[in-house]
## 1
Amino acid sequence: MLTERQLEIVLAVVYEYIKTGEPVGSRTIAKRYLRGRSAATIRNEMADLEEMDFLYQPHTSAGRLPTPKAFRVYVDAILRRQRSPGDEYQYWVRELKKKRDDLESALRYATKLLGDLTNCIGVAAVGPAEEAVLQKVEFVKVAERTALLIVILKGGLLHHKTMQLPQDMDQQTLDELSQRITVVASGKSWRKVRDALLKYVMQGLQSYAENCKAALNEVDILLLKDSYHLFTGGKHNILSLPDFADLSRLQVVMALLEEESSIAELVQKFSPDKGLSVMIGKEDPAFPIEDCSVIMASNIADGKKTVLGLIGPVRMDYERSISVLEAVLDSISTDVEEEVDDI
Amino acid sequence: MLTERQLEIVLAVVYEYIKTGEPVGSRTIAKRYLRGRSAATIRNEMADLEEMDFLYQPHTSAGRLPTPKAFRVYVDAILRRQRSPGDEYQYWVRELKKKRDDLESALRYATKLLGDLTNCIGVAAVGPAEEAVLQKVEFVKVAERTALLIVILKGGLLHHKTMQLPQDMDQQTLDELSQRITVVASGKSWRKVRDALLKYVMQGLQSYAENCKAALNEVDILLLKDSYHLFTGGKHNILSLPDFADLSRLQVVMALLEEESSIAELVQKFSPDKGLSVMIGKEDPAFPIEDCSVIMASNIADGKKTVLGLIGPVRMDYERSISVLEAVLDSISTDVEEEVDDI
DNA sequence: TATTAGCACTCCCACCTAGTGAGTGCTAAA
DNA sequence: TTTAGCACTCACTAGGTGGGAGTGCTAATA
């Protein structure tokens, strides 16, 4: 589809455009990237590339700008090649690792860091605690037919939720229920024990069958179906970018970011085994903003699916952004070992 | 200090400026606000008011703009007079009341609502649970000399925190400790029982005196000294305001908002018995942004100090903003009754 | 056939130049 | 004390100009 030389030109235009933000002329390319050829030759190639929708001119007598298609080619080239971890920002990443206390605050800090290091907006999302290992499950009665469900995960993480009970239940019976669940589930991941649990839990609590089912279901929701919790940081960074000098464009981006639902959709869609992915311009309908790119990567942290991302202008330094993102994600991620033990 | 007529002119200039955003001329004031007098008269008065630092001219041949001093006069006049609850936004406030589930999400929603209704940035902060009534206190061992402290408040609210124990302690002893604290504190506010608690808690746990002290201290921190948790919403609103057409100004505001610490300071300083207060321009050093005003009000919600605020341009519709803020705050606030019972 | 030098052409942009109008300060009269 | 009148100031706009970067096309060249 593209000749070797055309590819070279496309990559050069994108690279130069990312650096300067200005339309790139044939002379520049000839002088800095394809020294053997003259500007006229490049011009001919460029005219072809324009027909093929890799380049376009903002007006007749201007240089060329890359289209999203050209960015795609450029980013794919970066992703294909082996990336080396940059050094300048390693200090910050170590700093983050040092401060890493609970996941929430780590992510909050990470989004700021991501944003500041790349001049983009940092986003983070934690999903359900699918891989987490349980330590204790407890129900506390807080009102008639209302209980507070508390799940403590290994490492001291705590999840809780207020739930309605189909039948009223006194605290003693709730304790019995808590006890039964804890005995079986402790030291294992919920995903593995949930199916085997109901029969055992019901023993001695037959008259509360409905409650038992409801209780297990709520734990299910809490640990497996909990929606993603979002963080963003460094929003102010993009204000200084020339790409967003236009206020109306800025407003669209900010409004979308505050909406959260579209970001959540984006994260939801992004399955962790995808590694790292880059969306350019309006490639993904969930983030339909021209001139914005999204980079996302994910891993497991504290037993939870964790997605880290960057939102910035299409004209961003992808190379740097990607390696910052990878480094930060790496320093957030943890592997929690699970006790091997059956019911 | 100001004659009756001068005051009238100041209020008129502020009012007109808030409406139009343009410098206000003597003719406008004469025609719309002081019909008896001619423009020339108003001009003379205005020259005096300029000397007194209530008005200024952006350039020689322009109308007058109000200084922060003039805004102060205007706002004080509003605050002095009885305010009527507006009707147009009552629908949204009712909606908020309907959705009011847990305090966190209510505040999150409230900040959005505040922002959208007033075209400002909504902020909210919840402080320590000073007034809350306890239901249960529990310690769960999660590692060698590390325990998870869980405090359940009446109504099913939960606070938790990981703490270090001076001495190691097995779960059984931790249970004993939990039990002792719960028995005394349940049904009362922590503030009232904390001082009387230590002696009782130590009984039977003499050899763990250090741990007991540490444990009570941690509950103290969790319930009384916990720092404010901040929310902001509707940040995108100010992007469309002509007052922030200047990107650099916008950037300063956004950066400050993301910093959080200065907002926290602002909230911290604001003591709840102050009712409602308005800071104009750089009146408060904690929010040193020219052309920005802050309105804050606070109350108790779910036993916690709750501050609601608005950050917007100095040129905002104070009348509307104040009444929206009061209405939203009112719909968030709750009074929790406390059981009357002594140790 | 691919490449290149030359040249006319296009169009943005920065700069300048009135012209317009809203609003002022000052003065002198009511 | 108030007001009409008038000269003056200054931001804002529209229209005009020159320079420069970059193009497309053509014809000569390897």
## 2
Amino acid sequence: MPDSASETLPSGGGKRRKAAKRHTAGVKAVAAAAGVSLGTVSNVLNRPEVVSPLTRAKVEAAMASLGFVRNESARQLRAGSSRILAYLMLDAGNPFFTDVAKGVEEAAQAAGLSVFLCNSNEDADREADYLDLLEQQRVQGVLITPIDQNSSRLRKLPSRGTPVVVVDRNIDDGEHCSVAVNDILGGELAIAHLLELGHERIAYVGGPNTIGQVVDRRDGARRALRKAGKPPENLIELTTGALTVAEGRGAGQRLAGLPAARRPTAAFCANDLLALGLLQQCVSLGLRVPEDLAIVGYDDIEFAEAAAVPLTSVRQPRQLLGRTAAELLLDESSNPDHEHQRVTFTPELVVRTSTRGTL
Amino acid sequence: MPDSASETLPSGGGKRRKAAKRHTAGVKAVAAAAGVSLGTVSNVLNRPEVVSPLTRAKVEAAMASLGFVRNESARQLRAGSSRILAYLMLDAGNPFFTDVAKGVEEAAQAAGLSVFLCNSNEDADREADYLDLLEQQRVQGVLITPIDQNSSRLRKLPSRGTPVVVVDRNIDDGEHCSVAVNDILGGELAIAHLLELGHERIAYVGGPNTIGQVVDRRDGARRALRKAGKPPENLIELTTGALTVAEGRGAGQRLAGLPAARRPTAAFCANDLLALGLLQQCVSLGLRVPEDLAIVGYDDIEFAEAAAVPLTSVRQPRQLLGRTAAELLLDESSNPDHEHQRVTFTPELVVRTSTRGTL
DNA sequence: TGGAGTTGCTGAAAGGTTTCAAGACGATTG
DNA sequence: CAATCGTCTTGAAACCTTTCAGCAACTCCA
């Protein structure tokens, strides 16, 4: 523990206490204590209405006094169904995805299910490991914002019985539902806005290009240029290694290092974290935003508005995205006539100071 | 879907495809296909070194061709152990906790375990539900940043065999390890800094008071006043309903509404989200920060530095907190001589513009 | 060549729950 | 009073895996 002072004390005021062994009072012990059969205890647990109030009370008392905790593995093994949904997130540190997760939790709670969050952290290996794990756990279903939506693992899950809904990406392979925002349009909105303000040389900051969102937003940017009759070289691509604040700072360093004549006058970032990092670094290196560099982010996370220079950003309906995805998943796992769907929402440009009145 | 345009298409290019049934090729089917016994398949899975290369190859081929996926419920039921850790977070939308989670994941990965994240979202009922769920799942252990550390449920888990480590809170009941940062000291640092700058009337923004961190930081603030010989009324408490940006904005509204003469000249917020909201609202209502109102946050999340006015904050070793907690948990569940510990880290004041050169 | 040791595989038991056909019991009806 | 019905409860089977004692075949050495 090198980078922080720490102090360690024994807990429990010195009363040494060994770790307790797992003492499982099972359904059997409860049955014995209550003087009923196994089946009855199970009924109390699963169909309380069929057991007489008296017996039920006895059983409940026995459960309480023994500290009975149902063994979910056994339940699931026998009953064959899990009451858990998982959301495998691209980056739990990005408020965009935690807002999506909130929408997921909302829909799950309404259906009486619980949500486990998993964080792939933009790492394909971790994503794969989590997918395997979740499949082995036989969760009700998986929501995922994938790193690579062509992964074979991703395609295999549904055919083996684990429904998968892709979030924040569209996918049309007939195996999944997907819920997304039109990222091409989003990119187009951002660049059209900058072009309208008179910017000619515009940087696109984003990466890696394995991430679909990064590519789509860039393609939208290109399309906006094309539509405006500008040459594609006007879009200068700065590729980053991830979609994080730190990478944004790195990009800012590179950008600020360019001679003013060759430096773009505006930057469009693939997400707000990059934009915030870029903004921070550029400001600290003496560039004025928006006068020297206009910046557009993407996602419109809560912090975009509170930034040093309030950030123009492309807004996505975050919670709605999550809620809709969860609802599709629930439909898929409960409705035998379920048909896969692709839902696409429309993004919206929110203009703030970081691009206001430039040039 | 009221607040966003959306478009829905069938997926799969119109090829209607029904949801697949769960077709479980089990260990039995694999054994039959490979011409070996159940036990051998299990050995391939769990102790590959004891089976001859030839048989192993046959079994692996059979597994691949049948798409075998091990049923984790059955495995766990029989083997009695889970390979999963859970971190029950207070607020997944707070970057502080996702950084802690990163530390947890790091330590877990090093030990070959996986982490499920759960979000209580500052809601005691959800916290209780998740604790029940995790206990039923028989996870290896639970890390938790509790809403109420005196909850009976929390105390019961360890005695029934699920180790629990409390994160970001100290607790001394002999049942848990805990890892925390000295929040009293943190509060003291913040207020001492403001006093040194000459502030007399200082607001404390935080709540609800059921959350331990909120109380400790306030107590630290009071202590600093006491030590400086100031009357306790100089600390004006603004109680919030949660530790969020939105609540911070609300507090800003209240604060800015006060007549200048009665308004505090500085505010210490129980966390950075509150501080960012407060900052944003005050600025938009025309207060200058730090001239009219100095602000100190808590946690030093990544966005504190990038805020409209870079935020003075009390820094905590976030990842280290998570990593240490996970390591204690792992020790508890693997080391029979484990003794509960309370680890306390020391916070550090990071001074930025939001308090610089005030008064 | 006989015995011991080794290697690799087998088969049955066990783990805690749910499910379901069937039984027990009392009440109601003809 | 017998027959029928309803309400509760029971006991055994089933879910899928791991574990472990035991067995077969082979090697090695005396």
